[in-house]
Design brief:
Blueprint (H helix, E strand, L loop, with lengths): L6 H18 L3 H32 L7 H16 L17 E2 L5 E2 L5 H15 L8 H27 L6 H13 L2 H8 L1 H20 L6 H18 L7 H12 L7 H6 L1 H30 L16 H10 L5 H4 L6 H11 L1 H19 L16 H8 L8 H23 L2 H11 L8 H6 L3 H11 L7
Length: 475
C-alpha cells in the first residue's frame, strides 16, 4: 500500500478531490452562464481588432517610399485586377529601368509573388465586404503587411508568456513586445517597405508555429505542416528566407536532445519521430521552392533564370557590416535602439532555452554575413538596414529574460527614444531625411565607406550617427 499523504500535501489532495467533485456535479446551466462572458469577450475582441485594422487604412501614410515597393504594388494590381503575373498593362507607370522582359516578350517583376498574392486576397476580401471605398490600392498592401506584423508581435507575446511565465515578469514581457512593435525599424517597415516586413513577420510566425508543434503532441504534425506553409510563403515573398530552412532542422534536433549536442546514438533512437516531424514541415517548404522556380519559368520564359542577374554578394564584409551597424541613415543600432541589450539577452536565452538560442544564432549569422556582402548592402535610399529586419525579433524578444532592474529601466528609456525616431519617420518621407544627411555630409555616403576607413574618419561618421542625429539635427 502506498503511504498516505501527510500535512500540506494531504490537504492539497483533499482540496483537489472536493474541487473535482464540485466540477463533476456542476450543472450544465451554470456552465453555460460561466462560459458566456468568455464567448462575449472573444466576439468583442474580434470586432475590436477588425475595427482597429480598418481604422489603420485611414491613418497610415499613403506614400510609396521606393521603386521596389512600387513594383510590388504594380504586381499586386496585376494579380488582383487582371489575374496575371505580367506587368504589361502597367508598363506606362513603370520607369524604363524596370521594364524587364522575358523571352516571351512580357514585362515581369524580379521580386517574389508572396506579398502581392496576399495583397490581392486582401483586396478581394475588402471588396466583397464593401470596405474598400476611399481606400487606395497601395494602402491595401500596407494593411496586409501590418496585419502580419501585428500577428508576429502577438506570437512574440505568446512565446514570452511561455518562456518567461512568472507573474511579476508579465509587465516586462508586454513592455518588450510594445517596444518591438512601436520603437524599432519593424514599425516603419511594416507600412514603408512591406516587402521586407512580410518576410520578417512570416518567418517569426513560422518559427512560433514550429515551437508550438514540438511542445504539444496533440497538434504536432498539423501545426508543423502549417509552419512549413508559412515559411514557404515567406520564401515566395523574398527567396532569401529559404536560407533559414536548416535552422528549423537544427532546432528540431536540439529539442529532441533536450538542448544537448545531438549524438548519432540519440538520432538513431529518435529517428522515427524526427523524420516524421521533418517530413510534415519540409514538404510544404520544398513544394514552395518548386513553385518558386515554376513562377520564375513563367516570368522569364526559361528554367533556372536569375531575375537578379548582375547583382552579387561581392561587397567586402567589413564595409557592409560596419555600415549597417554605425553609418548615418543606416545604423541598425540607432533606428532600433533596443538591440543594444541583445548580447546579454542572447546569453540569458542560452541559459534558458538553448534550441531557440542556436536557432537565433543561425539566423543572425546568415543574414548579417550574407547581406553585409550584398553589392548594395545599404539597401537603397531608405532609413536603416532593412535587409537585417528578419533577425530583429530574435534579438529583441529575449531581452524579456533579463532580470536586473537597471536593465529594465534602460529598456524603457531606449523604447521611448525609439518611439521618438519612429514618429519622425512617420511624419516625413524618409528619403528626404536620407538626402539631407548626405547633402550636408557628402563624405559619409554609404558608397564611400572604404575611403572613410582609409582616411581614418570612422569616428566622425559614428559621431554623426550617435551624437548629431540623436538631437535630430538631420531628421
Amino acid at each position: 500500500m502506498p503511504e498516505r499523504p501527510k500535512g500540506a500535501v494531504c490537504k492539497t489532495v483533499i482540496h483537489q478531490f472536493k474541487s473535482d467533485r464540485l466540477l463533476h456535479f456542476h450543472s450544465n446551466k451554470d456552465s453555460i452562464e460561466v462560459a458566456k462572458p468568455k464567448i462575449y469577450l472573444k466576439i468583442f475582441t474580434i470586432i475590436f481588432l477588425l475595427f482597429a485594422y480598418y481604422s489603420l487604412s485611414k491613418v497610415i501614410p499613403n506614400r510609396i517610399d521606393s521603386g521596389d515597393t512600387f513594383e510590388l504594388h504594380v504586381q499586386s494590381l496585376s494579380l488582383a485586377h487582371l489575374k496575371t503575373i505580367y506587368l504589361d498593362y502597367y508598363k506606362q507607370y513603370l520607369p524604363p529601368t524596370r521594364h524587364k522582359q522575358g523571352t516571351h516578350g512580357h514585362i515581369y517583376s524580379k521580386y517574389g509573388i508572396g506579398l502581392p498574392f496576399l495583397t490581392a486576397v486582401n483586396m478581394k476580401i475588402f471588396k466583397n465586404l464593401h470596405l474598400n471605398k476611399g481606400i487606395e490600392d497601395f494602402t491595401m498592401m500596407q494593411l496586409t503587411s501590418i496585419l502580419f506584423f501585428l500577428l508576429a508581435s502577438w506570437c512574440g507575446w505568446r512565446l514570452l508568456s511561455d518562456l518567461n511565465p512568472q507573474p511579476h515578469q508579465k509587465w516586462f514581457n508586454l513592455l518588450i513586445i510594445f517596444g518591438y512593435t512601436f520603437s524599432t525599424l519593424a514599425t516603419y517597415y511594416s507600412y514603408g517597405w512591406p516587402g521586407n516586413s512580410i518576410e520578417a513577420s512570416l518567418l517569426f510566425i513560422s518559427f512560433y508555429l514550429f515551437y508550438l508543434a514540438l511542445r504539444d503532441d496533440n497538434i504536432r504534425y498539423k501545426t508543423l505542416c502549417w509552419a512549413g506553409v508559412v515559411l514557404g510563403i515567406a520564401g515566395l515573398s523574398r527567396s532569401f528566407a529559404f536560407i533559414t530552412a536548416p535552422a528549423f532542422a537544427l532546432y528540431l534536433l536540439l529539442t529532441y536532445s533536450q538542448g544537448r549536442f545531438p549524438t548519432l546514438t540519440l538520432i538513431k533512437s529518435k529517428i522515427h519521430p524526427l523524420l516524421k516531424s521533418a517530413l510534415y514541415f519540409y514538404l510544404p517548404v520544398m513544394l514552395s521552392i518548386a513553385l518558386h522556380f515554376i513562377i520564375l519559368r513563367k516570368k522569364m520564359g526559361f528554367w533556372w533564370g536569375n531575375p537578379y542577374a548582375g547583382e552579387h554578394f561581392d561587397s567586402p564584409f567589413l564595409i557592409g557590416f560596419l555600415g549597417s551597424l554605425f553609418w548615418p541613415g543606416k545604423s541598425f543600432i540607432f533606428f532600433s535602439p533596443l538591440v543594444i541589450l541583445s548580447i546579454p539577452a542572447l546569453w540569458a536565452l542560452f541559459k534558458r532555452h538553448r534550441p531557440l538560442f542556436f536557432f537565433s544564432l543561425y539566423l543572425i549569422a546568415a543574414y548579417v554575413i550574407l547581406m553585409s556582402k550584398w553589392w548594395a548592402w545599404w539597401s537603397g535610399g531608405d532609413m536603416g538596414q532593412r535587409f537585417w529586419l528578419p533577425i530583429l525579433a530574435f534579438m529583441i524578444f529575449p531581452i524579456a529574460l533579463l532580470r536586473a532592474k537597471t536593465v529594465k529601466l534602460l529598456a524603457l528609456v531606449l523604447i521611448i527614444f525609439g518611439i521618438t525616431i519612429q514618429v519622425n519617420l512617420f511624419k516625413q518621407d524618409p528619403r528626404s531625411i536620407w538626402e539631407r544627411i548626405y547633402t550636408n555630409h557628402p563624405d559619409f555616403k554609404e558608397t564611400a565607406i572604404d575611403q572613410t576607413i582609409k582616411d581614418g574618419r570612422v569616428l566622425e561618421a559614428i559621431k554623426l550617427t550617435f551624437i548629431d542625429m540623436v538631437f535630430f539635427k538631420n531628421l
